[in-house]
Design brief:
Blueprint (H helix, E strand, L loop, with lengths): L1 H11 L5 E6 L7 H4 L3 E6 L3 H7 L6 E3 L14 E7 L8 H9 L2 E12 L7 H5 L8 H10 L2 E9 L4 H14 L11 H17 L10 E8 L1
Parallel strand pairs: 1-2, 1-4, 2-3, 4-5
Antiparallel strand pairs: 5-7, 6-7
Length: 220
């Protein structure tokens, strides 16, 4: 989430009080950060998640889904945000086109997605992912939707060897076990240090590989 804040601060928030929509907000964990930058509408298809999201920040939480059920006016947004959502959608190009219609001409669109199809594992199946992306396939989907990439980088790069090793070993052994437990306190501290280091690199020095991709998109 701090990476998201860093990206918005560095590349997007040129003026205060942006009109923002988070599409696929889940239980609203990103809303406290997004509301720092403007008025936020949070779109989520799941009713229980919407109820919880509404308690997290001063945002308007509404029902909606991609690609045909976005309750947002055309040309109304300064910033659209989709964080680990696009990989859940059957037709990713149609979803991107639907969001593009809601953007003002000078608006930005911030996305994160899971990267590297070679990392596909039961974790992806458990979370109902349709795909993992490479920089090439994500760029192709964005451009097919009539948008253009302003900035793209892999992230979670320093964790790649560890995550790749665990997932490839599970694939090799045929293990269907999914890691759903919370990390220990010491591991949390390590992860925080890793994310803090990468946060200062992304946007200044695009990373060549990683578990995830982040991209800032503009209208073509």
């Amino acid at each position: 989430r701090r990476i998201v804040a860093e990206m918005i601060t560095q590349h997007i928030a040129k003026r205060p009080n942006l009109a923002i929509a988070e599409i696929g907000c889940g239980t609203g964990s990103n809303l406290p950060i997004l509301t720092r930058f403007g008025q936020v509408t949070a779109v989520e298809p799941d009713a229980d998640a919407r109820v919880y999201a509404a308690t997290r920040a001063n945002a308007t939480v509404v029902e909606g889904r991609l690609p045909d059920g976005l309750p947002l006016a055309e040309n109304s947004l300064d910033l659209a945000v989709m964080l680990d959502v696009l990989e859940h959608v059957d037709d990713d190009v149609a979803a991107l086109k639907a969001v593009a219609k809601k953007l003002k001409p000078d608006a930005s669109f911030l996305l994160t997605v899971p990267a590297m199809p070679s990392l596909w594992s039961p974790h992806d199946e458990e979370h109902h992912h349709k795909r993992r992306y490479t920089a090439k396939t994500l760029r192709a989907a964005i451009e097919a939707a009539g948008l253009k990439v302003e900035m793209m980088s892999y992230f979670n790069t320093l964790l790649l060897p560890m995550i790749a090793g665990v997932r490839w070993m599970k694939n090799l052994t045929g293990s269907k076990e999914v890691d759903t437990g919370l990390p220990s306190n010491w591991l949390n501290k390590v992860l925080e240090a890793v994310f803090a280091f990468e946060r200062h690199l992304i946007g200044r020095l695009p990373l060549p590989l990683g578990v995830s991709l982040v991209v800032i998109v503009k209208a073509a």
